Amino acid sequence: MNQFKPFHLAFPIRDIEETRKFYGDLLGCEIGRSTEKWIDFNFFGHQLSAHVKPDELAAAHKNEVDGKNVPVRHFGAILPWEEWHSLADKLHAHGIEFVIEPYIRFKGEVGEQATMFFLDPSGNALEFKSFQDPSQIFAK
């Protein structure tokens, strides 16, 4: 793959403190600058800016993929295989309700991947993935 190029994503939230706890404490994201209206996180090397704007929170539209209802609007990270499994265990231990429980897609096929979906406290959908073979992230 090419040299790592971090992205920036700004998204709406309803509350700074619940967001700080979720992304900072639960997901382990380093907290950057913040005010009473927004907070930045180091989201696995990428910059997330969470802005208090509850009226902008999206309705949960879904699309069927592999027989599962995937939230159309979502973001997340691709983690190393063992880190993904550790996060799944941690989320289970903290009682996180999954939109789509952790599972393996394309088992034994090109692009085999682990995936899971869950919501942050504001209802923003997150997907975390991992690939047995990271060179297959964009495989067809």
TrEMBL record:
One of its GO terms (molecular function) is dioxygenase activity. Keywords: Dioxygenase, Oxidoreductase. SUPFAM superfamilies: Glyoxalase/Bleomycin resistance protein/Dihydroxybiphenyl dioxygenase. The keyword DNA damage does not apply. Residues 5-131 form the VOC domain. This is Putative dioxygenase of extradiol dioxygenase family. InterPro entries: Glyas_Bleomycin-R_OHBP_Dase (IPR029068), Glyas_Fos-R_dOase_dom (IPR004360), VOC_core (IPR037523). It comes from Belliella baltica (strain DSM 15883 / CIP 108006 / LMG 21964 / BA134). It holds the Pfam family Glyoxalase.
